[in-house]
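Troubleshooting log. The previous structure file for this entry was overwritten by mistake, so regenerating from the original sequence record. Sequence copied from the archived sheet and checked twice against the printout by T.R.
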Amino acid sequence: MCSIGEEDFGDEGGVHAMIPETAKLTLDDSLQQQTCKRCNLEKCVLKLSHKKDPECGKCFMNYVRHKFKAALGSTKIVKRDATVLLVADEAPESVVMLDMIKNCIEQNIHQRLHVKIVGVLMIDEGFLGDNSDRNGPKSFYERYKYLGMPLFYTNLARNQDSVKIIDENWQQLDDDSKEKSLKQKLSALKSLTSQQEYLHSLRVAALSSAATELTAEFVFTPEISLDLAKLLLTNISLGRGASVALDVGFCDTRHVSFRIIRPMRDLTIEEIHHYLTLNGLSAASSTRFGLNKGPNASIQNLTAQFVDGLQQQFCGTVSTVFKTGERLKGKNAGNAEICKVCRSPLDFENSETLFATEYSRLVSEFANQHISEPEFIEEKAKEAVRGAEKSKKQNLCHSCRNIFMGVDDENLGDFYESLS
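Regenerated output below.
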């Protein structure tokens, strides 16, 4: 019988909220004088900040792996023998997810994860950085070849092209024209916030293209609770409240041929680091575009800094933020049209909030022009909410319209094409 109690999976946010405590991310030698209270056999090596007692490495590994498998098993969304594509980079969360899945499929018949892994996908965006070193696929291969799974590559600038297999004979296939085209598109966006949001949509498009080509029913991504807490607050700040439940939930159902699954969402950054240490695994830092430009450069960076600060000083608060996202539900869209970029239901129709926002903006704008007719301002506000007649921006949700603010219809078609 499983020895992990229900208290291990409780909402610790309410219990530990606002308790200043920095998580220990290294093994504690001083704990080795104590015997693990869970198994009463091994010496303790670590103590998680949200648990009362220290524990040994073996019990910690059983606990965190059970937590991972429980997330997959409790929902019963991923059926037996389903085809699964794993999306990863070399960040700690990806390293842990892939190692856990390897462990799960090597268990005995009763405890095994019964899915068919079609491969591990790397989405390369190294060309966007200042570093000219393009050895990402080779490094990816060296890190994950022990898995014995097919390793695939796709470039963020070529999401419509077929995926390539990474092996020991890999040679970099640069395509300067498409990479240059993507850089030009980024320069056309008015802010780093818009650029980072557009790149996020490109990653999803690349993922979708690869999943379709490899006939995967499910795509596993490695976001943990800290990542999703950042995403939750960022999306609300950017006006994506209608789709935030899909963006941070266990399962994203917006795609017709496959579903995105987040099996790591219940794990904390502290558990990730302990897992790496106990298993002797290494990882690399994230190379996402714009992260090195400082916290004030974009909404995403500022939110990330805020949540990281909470994690260091009040780690229970991050759990509260994340678990709040679990309870959010989007409106039932029915047969509503979807946004061409993020595939969320179009949210501007009959929106009193958007109308009030546009009305207030126009009142301030027209005050300088000595225009005060309420009917005129009201009609202009309704037009701003709907979008101009026959404009391609009518196919975008409110948040995606803000991303492409300043991009005309002719150039917007190029953005649509790159995301299709």
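The first strand starts at residue 82 and ends at 87. Archived copy saved in two places this time.
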